[in-house]
Write a structure and sequence with these properties.
The complex is a heterodimer of chains A (532) and B (313). Chain A contains 13 helices and 17 strands. Chain A is α+β, with helices and mostly antiparallel strands. In chain A, a hairpin with a 3-residue loop joins strand 9 (381-383) and strand 10 (387-393). The longest helix of chain A has 31 residues, at 16-46. In chain A, strands 4, 5, 6, 8, 14, 15 and 17 form a 7-stranded antiparallel sheet that branches. In chain A, helix 3 (55-78) packs antiparallel against helix 4, helix 3 crosses helix 5 and helix 7 (202-220) packs antiparallel against helix 8 (223-244). Chain A has helices at residues 2-14, 16-46, 55-78, 95-124, 133-156, 161-187, 202-220, 223-244, 247-253, 344-350, 435-440, 481-484, 527-531; strands spanning 262-265, 276-277, 283-293, 299-312, 315-319, 329-330, 334-343, 355-375, 381-383, 387-393, 399-401, 404-406, 409-417, 424-430, 450-456, 471-476, 498-519. Chain B has 313 residues and is an alpha/beta fold. Chain B is built from 9 helices and 15 strands. In chain B, helix 3 (110-120) runs antiparallel to helix 4 (133-145) and helix 4 packs parallel to helix 5 (163-176). The longest helix of chain B is centred in the middle third of the chain and has 14 residues, at 163-176. Classes of the chains: A alpha+beta (532), B alpha/beta (313). At the A-B interface, helix 1 of A face strand 6 and helix 2 of B.
Chain lengths: 532, 313
């Protein structure tokens, strides 16, 4: 321990300037964080509920990450592992103590200040930090594996800062190339998988490879092998994603089962009756108008992907890979539509006659787990399992009606700890009239409250996302574009209006199949290609 | 005596290039062993293998009874290593440098440290990066001697230093000699001649010889044979006749296996017409030049212009 502390003390004396930079940035981050949430709320209200990160939210975490990287690289290179001329390699350094000293340095000047900042921010947001220890630990694990370990591994196998930068650029270029290939394949519909977490092995693989590189470098000063491992890593990550995107894994994650839900072709479709060019120019976007029946009250079905086989004249002429579909939240029997891409070649070959469609759907079944109704208020509202919700006040407020001054609530945003909320259906009422008159005047000419709803969050059980700021801000967007585009400027949620949060939890994932006979592909106007 | 350093078949290849080729060596405890050889002979590679800085391609090495490839951590408590091109943390002052190493060595001797600082006249408040090359070497020496290591390994320690600094370092080193084995490499023979007890000659990755300095000095002689008439020399001179020169009636060479009277008899027999013979001791520098030239395949016989065209027996 004495040697560990001795090396640590030397490193602190050496890098006190480098230490101060992330500390100062974290201090600014902690100071400005709460202001950013409030500004974010305002911004969200102006642009219809879409969250746009502010300057601080965008740049500070990036700057903090870069300053950590600089610090880690410098402290690793202080006892450089590459080369044969270093001052320390023929001294009684013990590699375990050296690595422990470096880890302690990172703990003291990266994790400890981060933990303090996150604790303060959670407390400031009204989210009790002590109740989120598990999520914080998971966040630190993600930060370690995704931000800290890779840079430490690269530093361990490079000679100096310039070489490290070049290596980092090399790794980034490799990742970009691999990602581009992946994206290109995705656009062609080759590697999409309804299995949401095809990156499930990314964290373990990153941890395994980077730890191996670091341990090999410190224990054996085996640099060449470490470099090979770093080069192999992006390929392994890519292959693991490919594996999880494979049909076998889809079949494993979504076993074939009777959903108890029936999908039938709508008799009288009105939605999209023409095909449109898809993002991939070789494909067209087709909608299959469907009716869904048999949904049990309290259940929710989410479609995650589809695979379509087109059969003509008794033989399959085309089978798609798994394709992303428009995500539907189905809580009751309703008309809906399945949108998917088909190649132009297939489209033109079957357009003139009817075909049979065999559709495989990957579905998530969720169930209502909690319903909570709160009253809109100018103060913060705690919502169980979600966090704390605040009213977005119109910056034009206060306004005066009948001699009384009021603040106008134009929206709601909710703050959650370290991750977005679980999938939640939120309902409330808006009014186009002044709140005071709604309360006191019975007037048949006054606008009646309008029922509005929105979905927030997702069906996931990850305790945290990779974030430095421990607060996730989710604005509730109650705008319905078709109905609200001409809404009066005075639309608001009045204090006391009910807001109902209905949370859903994942029950199972399954694959269901249905057949549509006598389907005729919609028409396609080739003029649309020219218009693009 | 125990061998402080012991190697058998030590081999190191860098790709296709063999830097060391099956080197066998034993360095006795308490000796001052100088490993010499021309540039590129493999001296630094040999030392880096001893210090486990490089891994051997083949062969075995023990240092202070430990396998060299296990040398790490606490084992370096007993070894002091200084290299001419060793990096040092330039941001540290000399005082901080000495202070930093103290806790690493349980046997660190503060009195000796102070003595070395005084002896080397080290400026404690100056940063290492601001020191001259000589001063930096002195700081490296002081930090490697203050814990009284059992083995001191020096790689070209005096290279490029002015004579005054060199003498100061040698003086500091010799003060430690009674309690340590010293192993150093050098290509400057003059600097080691005065204090080395043993010497080894490495050329092209092979150990040509390794022996005590006195034995080496005794077996090399500058032989001058003066004949009455033109020289008649063997067509193929014996292998221990190095740098054979014929100049009129005078034949000169370096004898590398001089053993006193028997050698003198054999040479007299080789030159029956010799008017006089002389066997003079030669400095180390001349010994190594003779060996180096032999290793580089210089002509075995150098004949002066006047002698050219005459036959040899």
């Amino acid at each position: 321990m004495k040697q560990i502390l001795h090396i640590l003390e030397k490193d602190v004396r050496r890098f006190w300037r480098e230490i101060l930079i992330p500390l100062a940035l974290l201090a600014v981050f902690t100071w400005t964080g709460p202001k950013e949430w409030r500004d974010a709320s305002l911004r969200a209200s102006y642009i219809g509920g879409f969250f746009v990160p502010g300057t601080v939210e965008t740049f500070l975490p990036t700057l903090i990450s870069i300053s950590w990287w600089l610090l880690i690289v410098r402290v690793v290179h202080e006892e450089r592992l590459v080369g044969d001329r270093q001052f320390w390699i023929t001294r009684p350094y013990e590699w375990k103590k050296l690595i422990a000293a470096k880890a302690l340095f990172v703990a003291c000047f990266v994790y400890l200040p981060l933990a303090a900042a996150q604790w303060l921010l959670l407390a400031e947001a009204g989210l009790h930090p002590a109740t989120h220890i598990g999520s914080l630990l998971y966040d630190w694990l993600l930060i370690t594996v995704i931000l800290i370990l890779p840079i430490a591994a690269i530093a361990a196998v490079t000679r100096n800062f310039a070489r490290m930068t070049l290596t980092l650029l090399g790794v980034l270029v490799t990742v970009l190339i691999v990602t581009s290939i992946f994206s290109a394949l995705l656009q062609k519909g080759i590697v999409y998988s309804p299995v949401g977490q095809t990156d499930i092995l990314d964290v373990p693989l990153l941890m395994l490879f980077c730890s191996a590189v670091i341990l090999l470098a410190y224990a054996r000063r085996s640099i060449g092998l470490g470099r090979i491992l770093l080069l192999v890593l992006p390929v392994v990550l890519f292959l693991s994603q490919e594996f999880f995107a494979s049909d076998a894994m889809v079949n494993h994650a979504y076993p074939k089962s009777d959903a108890g839900v029936q999908f039938t072709l709508r008799d009288n479709p009105t939605l999209l009756e023409t095909a449109h060019p898809a993002l991939n120019r070789k494909e067209l976007l087709i909608q299959i108008p469907l009716h869904v029946a048999g949904i049990t009250p309290g259940d929710l079905w989410v479609s995650n992907g589809a695979r379509v086989t087109v059969e003509s004249g008794g033989r399959a002429v085309w089978t798609s890979n798994w394709r992303p579909v428009n995500t539907q939240y189905l809580t009751a029997d309703k008309d809906t539509a399945l949108t998917f891409n088909v190649s132009r070649e297939v489209f033109y070959s079957v357009q003139s006659h009817t075909v049979t469609l065999h559709v495989d759907l990957a579905l998530d079944q969720a169930r209502r787990t909690q319903v909570e109704t709160v009253q809109a208020s100018l103060r913060d509202i705690a919502v169980n399992g979600l966090g704390v919700c605040s009213s977005i006040i119109d910056p034009g407020s206060p306004y005066t009606v009948g001699g009384k001054t009021s603040l106008r609530i134009v929206g709601i945003n909710c703050r959650s700890a370290l991750r977005g909320p679980e999938l939640t259906y939120v309902e409330t009422v808006w009014t186009d009239g002044p709140c005071e008159l709604n309360k006191t005047v019975i007037n048949e000419f006054l606008p009646q409250p309008l029922l509005r709803s929105t979905w927030i969050g997702k069906l996931t059980d990850d305790p945290s996302e990779l974030i430095l700021a421990p607060i996730d801000v989710t604005p509730l967007n109650f705008l319905e574009y078709n109905r609200d585009q001409n809404s009066p400027a005075g639309r608001q949620i009045c204090p006391g209006f009910p807001i109902t949060f209905t949370r859903y939890g994942l029950v199972r994932q399954l694959r269901t199949a249905f057949t549509i006979d006598n389907f005729r592909f919609p028409s396609y106007d080739k003029g649309e290609d020219a218009a693009r | 005596m125990n061998a402080t350093i012991h190697t058998r078949g030590l081999t190191k290849h860098f790709g296709r290039i063999a830097a060391l080729n099956g080197v066998d060596l034993d360095v006795e405890e308490g000796s001052i062993y100088a490993l010499v050889g021309p540039n590129g002979a493999g001296k630094t590679t040999f030392i880096k293998l001893l210090m486990n800085i490089l891994r051997p391609t083949a062969g075995e090495t023990t240092v202070l009874s430990d396998p060299a490839n296990h040398l790490a951590g606490k084992q370096f408590n007993r070894i002091g290593y200084v290299s001419e091109n060793q990096e040092m943390p330039g941001w540290m002052t000399v005082a901080a440098w000495m202070e930093y190493w103290r806790p690493f060595y349980p046997q660190w001797d503060r009195v000796l440290e102070q003595q070395l600082v005084n002896q080397f006249d080290l400026p404690l408040k100056r940063r290492l990066k601001d020191l001259s090359r000589g001063m930096r070497m002195k700081a490296a020496f002081a930090s490697s001697l203050a814990y009284r290591p059992a083995l001191i390994v020096l790689d070209e320690p005096f290279s490029g230093l002015d004579p005054l600094v060199r003498d100061e370092l040698i003086e500091g080193l010799l003060d430690r000699a009674p309690e340590a084995t010293i192993f150093l490499s050098s290509h400057d023979l003059a600097e080691i001649e005065s204090f080395a007890s043993h010497v080894g000659y490495l050329a092209e990755g092979q150990m040509i010889f390794s022996e005590e300095m006195t034995s080496l000095s005794n077996r090399f002689r500058d032989v001058t044979v003066t004949l009455d008439g033109p020289a008649s020399i063997p067509a193929v001179p014996p292998p221990d006749w190095l740098q054979l020169q014929v100049n009129g009636a005078v034949v000169r060479f370096v004898h590398s296996s001089y053993a006193g009277e028997p050698t003198e008899h054999s040479i007299r027999a080789a030159f029956p017409a010799a008017r006089s013979l002389s066997f003079d001791p030669i400095p180390l520098r001349s010994i190594f030049l003779a060996i180096a030239k032999k290793e580089r395949h210089y002509p075995a016989i150098a004949v002066t212009e006047a002698q050219q065209g005459r036959s040899v027996a």
